[in-house]
Design a protein that fits this description.
392 residues; alpha/beta; Rossmann fold; Dihydrodipicolinate Reductase, domain 2; 2 domains; 9-stranded mixed beta sheet; 5-stranded parallel beta sheet; 12 helices; binds nicotinamide-adenine-dinucleotide
């Protein structure tokens, strides 16, 4: 099954274009010219103030082919890897999009930040918490913008969750259930970079788990995670009869599968909040449940989606009391005019140009990464583990 998470993400509007000052062009390069790089380039090409000047990929010829496909001429691509591109001072780069597989997020982001280049880094932040800490140190040293590619949080429906929490209608929040999953949806659209340990490092846990954590943590102001009991498994990914794989690739993919296809966790957050989490690329169920937020005055239900990709699956519902009666208030879905990917690229460029904070800052996403890391550590240890994020 193809991952549908990219559907409808690139739709830049003429209305948005009007607001942009096209005078000063930012010089941008793409590191890693695979699947998601396609969404980055489409959005960059729609911006009037961007010049795409270079790209690199580890696979010889892949970067050149990539830019040709998008009809871009004169883009420099004769680099063996990200480091060679970063070392080419003639490029005079303002920014890079790091679109490599997870294991290469930290090194590529650090190389670029060390060279004084602003970075838009794809999600998940990194694979381990240690890597994320090193990236943040490089960010602080550089004084440049580092934004992490969590475009779902730019969705007005996602932002509405935070507005509802901040309105006070839910009271004090004490319990959250989040996550979601797919019945058969291990992503192998263009090969195995999502499922091999050497490239991905983590599976469903990081790929879509990072979104479901962000959905609720961002809404409640990213409290510090304290402890976690985590579990992960790989029953579907390692099965040579898994029907979600291409029939001619089942044995090969099952052999190469080196990450998780399901994860669950019980996380304690600062402020006495419990976070109950589950995520699946594959399971014998349609959904492991909606996201729910329980507070002392009200509860919020956020419907799940069939292909869990970090979006609000339908009208949300608030369960509360009014004048001694138990009532439910429906929160209708807001239709977005802008594509989320365009908003992600635009907000990154605006932060660079205006000297404003990163739209998706590492100061928040490091807690997201710390939870993923804690779940992975706890699953291996078979017991609860502490989460310690140093002050950076
Ligand atoms: N934001 C989203 O909606 C979204 C959607 C899909 C994927 N992603 C994320 O994007 C990342 C890439 O996913 P993908 O599907 O495009 O993977 P991919 O395997 O199709 O592409 C990654 C490319 O990076 C190249 N690469 C790796 N290390 C490199 C280096 N040091 N220098 C230059 N090139 C290097 C690889 O050769 C490969 O071509 C993943 O981390 C994934 O989680 C995000």
């Amino acid at each position: 099954m193809a991952d549908k998470s990219m559907d409808g993400l690139n739709t830049f509007t003429a209305e948005a274009e009007k607001k942009v000052d096209g005078g000063r062009k930012l010089r941008v390069a793409i590191i890693g010219c695979g699947w998601i790089a396609g969404s980055h380039i489409k959005s960059y090409m729609a911006q009037p103030d961007v010049e795409i000047v270079a790209g690199a990929d580890l696979i010889p010829g892949k970067a050149a082919e990539f830019f040709k496909k998008y009809g871009l001429e004169g883009v420099k691509t004769d680099y063996a890897n990200d480091e060679e591109l970063i070392a080419d001072k003639s490029l005079n780069l303002d920014a890079v999009s790091v679109c490599t597989y997870n294991r290469q997020h930290a090194p590529c982001a650090i190389h670029a930040l060390n060279a004084g280049i602003n970075v838009l880094l794809e999600k998940p932040f990194t694979v381990t918490l240690e890597e994320a800490i090193e990236v943040v140190k490089a960010e602080k040293r550089s004084g440049k913008v580092l934004s992490i590619g969590f475009q779902p949080r730019l969705d007005a429906n996602m932002q509405k969750i935070g507005e509802i929490v901040r309105s006070g209608v839910l009271g004090k929040i004490y319990y959250i259930q989040t996550g979601g999953g797919r019945r058969r949806g291990i992503p192998t659209p263009f090969g195995t970079s999502f499922i091999e340990d050497s490239t991905a490092g983590l599976g469903a846990l990081a790929d879509i788990g990072c979104y479901s954590l962000d959905m609720v943590l961002n809404a409640i102001g990213y409290p510090k995670p304290l402890t976690v009991t985590g579990y992960k498994s790989d029953f579907f990914g390692k099965d040579p009869n898994y029907c979600g794989y291409r029939a001619d690739k089942r044995a090969e993919y099952a052999e190469k599968f080196g990450v998780d296809d399901f994860a669950a966790a019980f996380i304690r957050l600062e402020g006495g909040i419990i976070l109950d989490f589950r995520i699946a690329w594959a399971m014998n169920m349609d959904t492991p449940g909606d996201t729910i937020i329980l507070g002392t005055k009200g509860g919020l239900r956020i419907p799940s989606t069939e292909c869990w990709n970090g979006s609000v699956g339908g009208p949300m519902k608030i369960y509360h009391e009014v004048a001694g009666m138990q009532v439910e208030t429906e929160v209708p879905i807001i239709k977005m005019k802008e594509g989320l990917f365009d908003l992600k690229i635009r907000s990154f460029l605006d932060a660079i140009k205006n000297g404003t904070p990163a739209p998706v800052p590492s100061s928040q996403i490091i807690y997201n990464q710390a939870i993923l890391d804690g779940i992975a550590r706890s699953a291996v240890a078979g017991r609860e583990v502490e989460i310690n994020v140093p002050e950076l």
